[in-house]
Structure formats: C-alpha cells, structure tokens
Amino acid sequence: MRALYPGSFDPLTLGHLDLIERGARLFDGLVVGVLENPAKRPCFSLEQRLAQIRGATAHLPAVSVDSFDGLTVTMARRCGAGVILRGLRALSDFEYELQIAHTNHSLAAEVETLFMATATQHSFLSSSVVKEVARFGGDVRHMVPTGVAEDLLRFFNRPSTPG
Ligand code: ADP
Fold first, then answer.
1. For residue 35, which of 41, 77, 104, 141 sits 20 to 30 Å off, Cα-Cα?
2. Which protein residue has the closest C-alpha to ligand 1 atom 16?
C-alpha cells in the first residue's frame, strides 16, 4: 500500500525526515505531499521546499515528492494512497490531528489516517521553532538537513559558520 505524508514543510526538519524514513519502511511507496497554500505565506517557495525534500530523501527509493493544493484526500486519491500519515509530537498535536482525521474520513472513507509517534529526540522540533532560532542567528544544524540549514542562513542573511 502507498501512503501520503502531507504537510507544509516550511522548512523540512529532522523530525519530518525521521518520519519519512520510518514511513518508507512500512509502505510500498511514500509520497511526501507539499501543500502549496500561499495563504500561509511560507518562508520558502514551493519549488524550494520540493528541492529541500528531494535533496534530503534522495537515498530513499520508495519516497517521491509532489506538491498539492486543496484537499488532502483529493491528493491521496490522485496518488493512489490508501493511508494519510501524520506525526504526533505531543498531546497538544492530538486534538487538532483527530479533528482533521475525522474530517478526512467523512470525505473519503477508504483513506485511513495513521499517526506515528515522533522520535523523542525530535519531538521539540517544529518548522516555526527552527525559523525562530535561525532568524536570531542560532545554530540549527542539529534540527534540519544540511541543505535546509544553508537555505535558512541565506534566507535570514546570516554568514555561514565553518565546521
Ligand atoms: P502542517 O502545516 O500540515 O501541520 P507541518 O509541515 O508542520 O504541516 O507538519 C507535517 C506533518 O509532520 C504533521 O503530521 C506533523 O505532525 C508532523 N511533524 C511536525 N513536526 C514533526 C517532528 N518534529 N517530528 C515528526 N513529525 C513532525
């Protein structure tokens, strides 16, 4: 069975990547679906986010990366995914995620939502925390893949630190 892992990924974190790597072992194919949604005013353009994820998942043959706009269940049907994969970091994620899962089930009963617990060492990570740290010049190299760290340095106009 194929699974869809949808999100904004603005930008991809090591928490996202961990979920992708573990998800790729569970399913025949995993599609990372990058939500376009310009209303969210992302830091990184859709093309940049696609490139970041493709770069970080190049070692995973079962993973493909595609963009979508609109309903997640429509994207799941479009890519032939029977499962929507979502990550749970803490109880605070749960209420929102449960509501979305029920909504998606009411729209497309053949598509199941599966939650995976985030790796403990990554459970504090979110795209917004990473951006906040990078904005004020903090080191984000333990939070995001190398290519993303470079993009964040460029975006916030910080000179690259060697080593
Ligand atoms: P969205 O805007 O849809 O919440 P995100 O890019 O923030 O998109 O997250 C996409 C998915 O990745 C969600 O299921 C979210 O719970 C999960 N996720 C977010 N941060 C992490 C993390 N640190 N570890 C694992 N999964 C995460």
1. 141
2. 87
